[in-house]
Every structure is written in C-alpha cells, then in structure tokens.
Specification:
Layout lengths: L1 H17 L6 E5 L8 E4 L4 E4 L6 E5 L5 E6 L8 E8 L4 E8 L4 E8 L4 E7 L10 E6 L5 E5 L4 E5 L5 E5 L20 E7 L3 E6 L4 E6 L5 E3 L11 E4 L5 E4 L3 E6 L8 E7 L6 E6 L5 E5 L2 H5 L7 E6 L3 H40 L1
Antiparallel strand pairs: 1-24, 2-3, 3-4, 4-5, 6-7, 7-8, 8-9, 10-11, 11-12, 12-13, 14-15, 15-16, 16-17, 18-19, 19-20, 20-21, 22-23, 23-24
Length: 355
C-alpha cells in the first residue's frame, strides 16, 4: 500500500511539473503609438516603449498601466523613437531618433529620474548620405553603440554625447544579399553589448551574426548552424543565451567558445501580422517580444490603439527542466526503496539473533 502511495505521489508531481505555466501577456493602449522598440528598466520595474508616430516614450507596467515617461516636443517633426536602451549605471535612457525626410538621425540621452534630456547627438554630417539608424546598445562605461542599417556602420557615442565611428568593417559586406526579399536594403540592425566586452550585431538582409570588438571595431562573422532569416532585434540573457527576433520567429542561440561559433537550439513561431520587432530580457530572465503592428502603420492604418508585450519561452528548455526533476525524483524514490529493503533485512537479521 505504501508503494502505491509513493508511486501516486510521484505521478502527481510529474503531472504538476509537466503543466506549462501560462506565459505573461501585457496588453496596453495608446492611440496610434505603433511602437517599434522597447526595453526593460530594472530599477523602476517597468517596460519602456517608444513610438514611431509621437514624440513620447511610455512606461508600461506588467499589468498594462501606461504612463508618459518622456515627452520631447523639441525633436524634429515626423521623427521616430527607434532603438532604446537603459544605461543602468547612470540611470539614463538612450534612444535612437530617426526621420526619413528630410533626413535626421541622432542619439538622445534622457535622465530617468528627472525625465529630462541630457543631450541630442546628430549622427550624420553629410545629409546627402542615405542613412537609417535603428538600434542602440550601451556598455558599463556609458558608451552607446548605434547601428546604421543603410550603410552597415556602427557609431559610438560616449557618455558626454561625443560621436565617432566605431566600425565600417569589410565583414559586414562579405555575404550575399537576396535582392528579392522585402528587407534586402536593411543591413546591420539589432545590437547588444556582452558583459565580456564585445558587441553582438545581427544583419537583417543576410541573417548573419557578427562579433565586434569595442576597442578597435574589428568584426568577425559568427559561424552558425543556420542563418537568422530577417533578423531584427537581439538580446542576451544573464546565462549567456542570445535571443534574436525576426518577422516570424524568435531564435534561441548559445555558444561554447565566446561566440566564435554558435548554434540555434530552438525556434518559437511568432505572429507575423502583429509585427514582432524587438526582444528584451525582463525580470528573472523572462523573455518578452513586442507586437507593435508597425507594418499596419506603414500601410496607412492610423486607427490602432492596442498593442502587446508577450512573454515567449523555449519549448526545448521547458521540456528539459522537468526531465531532470523526474530523474531526481526517480533517484530519490530508488534510494528510498533500497533503504527500506536494507532496513527490512536488518530487522529480520536482528529477529533471528533474538530467537
């Protein structure tokens, strides 16, 4: 009877563990926001969301409560907030500003405590050069790194707003581009700073991942087991797992040699019609994707007012975790059964000696 009870307990534990936890979905409202980027602020425990239609940046709680964090009406008209990054060490928000026509590209820095602009650094001196700045990353010293998707350039902006070019590596132009894709003109896009002192950058039109030295700008292509088709945003978890969002997938990647080589070990399908454009790591290593419906806006829809931030999990990771728990439970049960068997034999031996 006791064995049946133990087996029943084991079955219940396995059933509870195998029940997938419900992923976190945050729906929030803001008329015609059409956000392309977002980030997580660990100090204030909220998401920060940009806008391609308004000169404002929102704070969104995990319950979907919206507050205007930054409203900067002094920016050029028709400009958009694209890439966002929180400088945790200096309590600043860094955001890429882009306007298509007349062209304007800059990096803005905002104090998150007082919610005021610290600087606005233009990233283009010669307006005759077509340029689309898209994403930004920040290192521990407050240096920001901005990608130019049109020219495959990485800009560097120091903590005081001084601009320089970090990299125009030939590696960025060394891979063939399929001219039939919608994104064939979009080069370097998502960028992230690794705590080990280098940048990882994705290229949309080739699906390649690059490792870039922050001291000299030397870039090397990371050897992967597959191309990251249509890669857009990128993030890195504290355990070293790299996440890349494309138009229809979220890729999970890892590397055993500091990103000389790497591999995609899982892919999660995303909802294309909602325009997933960015991925971030929030609290407790939870991974979130932004559904900003940007393509609707490009097609002329000005009526949308509801958007979402959705937690995405790896099925491979979810499968592996309970397997190890089952093994541990099984080992524990085996040890217990063995112990009972040994105790039973000991009691029988003692009884025989007593007789």
């Amino acid at each position: 009877m006791k064995y049946v009870t133990l087996l029943s307990t084991l079955f219940i534990l396995m059933s509870v563990t195998s029940t997938a936890k419900k992923c976190h979905v945050i729906n929030f409202r803001s008329p015609n926001l059409l956000p392309e980027s977002f980030t997580w602020d660990p100090k204030y425990q909220h998401f920060i969301v940009g806008s391609t239609r308004h000169h404002k940046i929102l704070a969104v709680s995990d319950a979907g409560v919206v507050e205007t964090l930054i409203s900067d009406t002094s920016l050029p008209s028709n400009s958009s907030f694209l890439g966002l990054a929180v400088d945790r060490h200096n309590n600043r928000l860094l955001t890429v500003i882009h306007r298509r026509s007349p062209p304007f590209n800059a990096l803005a820095s905002y104090d998150l405590q007082y919610r005021r602009r610290l600087f606005l650094s233009p990233l283009l001196d010669d307006e005759s050069i077509a340029m689309i700045t898209s994403a930004v990353a920040v290192d521990y010293s407050g240096n920001a790194y901005v990608t130019d998707s049109s020219n495959d350039v990485i800009w560097k902006v120091d903590s005081n707003g001084v601009v320089s070019i970090l990299s125009k590596s030939k590696a960025f132009k060394s891979h063939p581009v399929d001219a039939t894709t919608e994104y064939h003109k979009t080069g370097l896009n998502g960028i992230v700073y690794s705590s080990r002192g280098y940048l990882l950058v994705v290229q949309s039109n080739t699906g390649k991942l690059f490792k870039v030295n922050v001291d000299d700008g030397i870039a090397r292509t990371v050897t992967l087991n597959k191309n990251l088709t249509g890669a857009n945003g990128i993030a890195v978890r504290s355990d070293g797992v790299v996440l890349v969002v494309s138009r229809d997938k979220l890729y999970f990647l890892n590397s055993n040699d500091g990103w000389g080589e790497g591999g995609v070990y899982d892919e999660t399908t995303l909802e294309v019609e909602k325009s997933p454009t960015a991925v971030i790591v929030g609290d407790e290593k939870r991974v979130y994707v932004l559904y900003g419906y940007v393509m609707e806006g490009k097609m002329g829809n000005e009526e949308r007012d509801e958007f979402s931030i959705v937690e995405v999990e790896s099925e491979v990771e979810n499968f592996e975790e309970p397997i190890w728990l089952y093994i541990l439970i099984g080992l524990g049960l085996t040890y217990f059964m063995f112990w009972r068997f040994q105790m039973h034999r000991l009691v029988e031996t003692l009884n025989k000696k007593t007789v």
